[in-house]
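Reopening this ticket.

The earlier resolution said the output was attached, but the attachment link was broken on my side. Pasting everything inline this time so it's all in one place.
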Amino acid sequence: SDVPESRVNFRELQQAGYIRQDDLPLVLPPRGERGFGWDPVFRPAGEARTFGELPEAEKDRLGHRGRAWRDLLVELQGAVTQ
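Inline output:
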């Protein structure tokens, strides 16, 4: 196929339900030099910039890794106070 491998992988993840197009709009051509991997082609909902264009603090605030760490800290704090 003449479809770039990165697009095929994205499509497979999307079809499997791991990524929803409306949650992480795909931006082509890629924009931004920050981050790694897929950061230059995804932008958070409601944001004009891609993850590759965001400063690290904003990326952590909006991205799934930052949300996961914050959720984990809440769970751990709850476990400690019980």
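Reporter confirms the inline version is readable. The CA atoms of residues 24 and 44 lie 6 Å apart. The longest helix spans residues 64-81.
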